[in-house]
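Good day; I would like, with your permission, to put a structural problem before you. What I wish to show you is a protein chain and, alongside it, a tokenised description of its three-dimensional fold. Here, with my thanks, is the record as I have it:
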Amino acid sequence: PYKMEGEEEPLLPPTYNDVIRQRILKTNEGDLPSQFTRRDKVLSHIKHSYSFKSLFAVKPIDAFLLDRESRPAGHSLAEKLGLSDLLGYGVGCTVGAGIYSLIGVGAGIAGPGILISFLIGALSAMFTALAYSEFAARVPVTGSAYTFAYASFGELLAWIIGWNLTLEYCISSAAIARSWGDYFYYFWTQWGLDPPTWLNDISFGPTKLSPAAAAIVLLCTVVMLFGITTSSTFNVIVTILNVGVLIFFIGVGVSRVYPSYWYYENNSFVPFGAASLFTGAGTVFFSYLGFDMVSSLAEETKNPRKNLPRGIIGSLGIAAFVYVGVSLVATGLVPFPLMASSKAPLAFALEQRDLAWAGKVITVGSLLGLTTATFTGLLGQPRIFYTMARDGLLFPFFHWTAKRVQVPVIGTILTGIFTAIIAFSMTLEALADAISIGTLIAFSLVCAGVMMLRYKGGPRTYIPISLIIGFMATSFTSAMFFTHSHGCIVLFTLSGIFGIVSIGLFIALCFMKTYNIPESFQCPLVPFVPCMGIGINMYMLAGLKPAAWIRLGVWMFVGMLIYVFYGIWNSKMRTYSGELDTPKSPNGSIQKIENNGGVI
């Protein structure tokens, strides 16, 4: 089928690796026949770059693996992390602002029902973590959800996810740093001192500025530049201390709990209705993003196919146990309205029960815990930039690494500066919604991506893909009507109708045959587990405030400008998926190669 002119024997197509190794070669004057003018080449490149086929071209998994294996000096990461390191990073990133500060914000939304909100978040995170684990074992490459989306949905959605991960990591670190500043200020007041307001509370129009929050971000950035081994040792030690302090809080506080405080308002554990539980879950959900950060360390992990799934699921399980125990005790120590108004709710709750000495211990522990959470949140983002730059979608300096410490230096520094600016200028409440919305969208697409890969390879792949898209759309519509029904029968009925349709689509997916089963870790009960993750995520997304969607829209607009004017033109996918850069036979004719994972 590949017989060339003037040859008797057919020419076999080049292997995937032969094609992929040529992706870094730029188009030159000899790539096209001489009768083609420079204008013809430019117009052809524009036509190809902006074509529907190119925007949704899926990067084959073999290409990701070859990228990992063929990293040149100055562009490689150090493979030195074991399971204990991954657990330390995952727990350190997860057990942060979500439990030390946002438990107060969440209690103001859902009351004592914040416990259920944390459980909803944990349940969704567990479903998503199983999907993450399969992806991480299939594609043990740094990049997290961005990489997973590229392998299942194509370049455009991968860019959107990668850009949202910027929202997730940078802003989550800023929120945690902001919480660190609140506890740092509160620490001095506990000892009867009066710290200056410029340290953490400078009024500036509608917001308040926090130099302390910016300072901790910059300090963590400096530590990261010393290399992944030094960073890991520091993180593991502080994370152990952090978890120990939270267990101390549960042990000391449980003896002073008043069960009547769980029914303080409206004589109900859920005083603001069932919808408030999902709103609260959406607000605090970013507390569970630690397992996402673990997957971004794939290229720095020894034996990643085995250790990544264990690190992801293990860190999530530890964090969920701590969250449930702490939220149950905290809401039983004081009425939730008092805790909601405090910037240091855990220490405040103990002090209200005549446990001031324990409150000081919690404050010290919170400073340690929030330090590791800030640190690990900052650690993930440069690695996302690293992978996007390697694919050509971001500027190449994000792909540079220091030869001695093997960390992405420029990406780390720029991430630290950008995050410090956000932490300095935005309040914790404003940041919480912005983080959760990016996280929930990324997690939902990862769950859908697992199903996409499982159903690929059949004769009618478009049928399960259509069912997956339809399930996501109807679930979100049902969630929107339910969340905003507020007792309206019409909206509640519409929610039920779309819910029934989504259930029907799920049942249809159950009868679809799967073809692409991985040999390594497998997400169990597909499509049930991914669909449950998507469904819960959709309800949490629907419960977020309109301001969060507006911020997302602005952020996405900026991201699309970068993609349209830079990413599309420099994408490495063009060098082995386009008409200009496809491999040529010896006599100059173009060969087309296809692969089940996408067009090469």
User: Anything to note?
Assistant: The radius of gyration is 25 Å. Confidence is low (pLDDT under 50) at residues 1-36, 577-600.
